[in-house]
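Structural prep section.
Before we set up the soaks we want a predicted structure of the protein with adenosine-5'-diphosphate in place, mainly to decide which crystallisation condition to try first. Input record follows.
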Amino acid sequence: MTTPIIEIREVSKKYDDGLPALDGLSLTVRAGEALAVLGPSGSGKSTLLNLIAGLDRPTDGSVTVAGVRVDQLSEAGSARYRREKVGMVFQFFNLLDDLTVLDNVLLPAQLLGMGRAEARARAAELLEHLGIARHERAYPGRLSGGERQRVAVARALMNRPALLLADEPTGALDTASGADVRQLLADLNADGQTILLVTHDLALAEACASRTIELVDGRIARDNLAGMR
Ligand code: ADP
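Run finished without errors. Recording the tokens verbatim:
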């Protein structure tokens, strides 16, 4: 068994009123896995993603990612954790439109304090690998949705994250670009990248996930690796 990258123990998240968004959920994701989190709207998917990204804290339980107790981080510690350990890809890309493709991709390295030459070399390698090198001087607004998502993936991978998190990465793409991004994520996982993605796109889960879990009411209702719980 390989090392756990994500170790979630008995996590609950309660908001002021109503049922808990997450209800005593435990989950282990190992290095090299690609996990797709499915489930109806309101089942707790975004809450789970936010806890793993250190953007929110659980009411109970622990969240450990790449050896870091994410639920215990300060605000500054949490920002550093996101720079060093995770890359994030969103439905609507979240690129900075007044920076070029290259500068968008360089940004995480600058925040980390990586040397300029090393950062340029890493960015060049990623842009080449993801097939967008010819757009490095372009602004994101000039690119297609699929190309923008490739830029966002390059940016997310810049600091060699232990974990790539993706929130509906094909949700805003047309069919062809969606297929393209599905293949890209599958290729990254085949190269060893650990991925956790939240999606409604069953084709995405099928194409790139080695494991699928389904949340219902803040619990894991199905886990195709561990079987029914
Ligand atoms: P999903 O991503 O699967 O649609 P969410 O994690 O967004 O589900 O939501 C799970 C539950 O938690 C829902 O009932 C939602 O209304 C509630 N919830 C999410 N965020 C908040 C919040 N900031 N304040 C209060 N309730 C919230």
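Observations: Residues 82 and 137 are 26 Å apart (CA to CA).
Flagged for discussion at group meeting.
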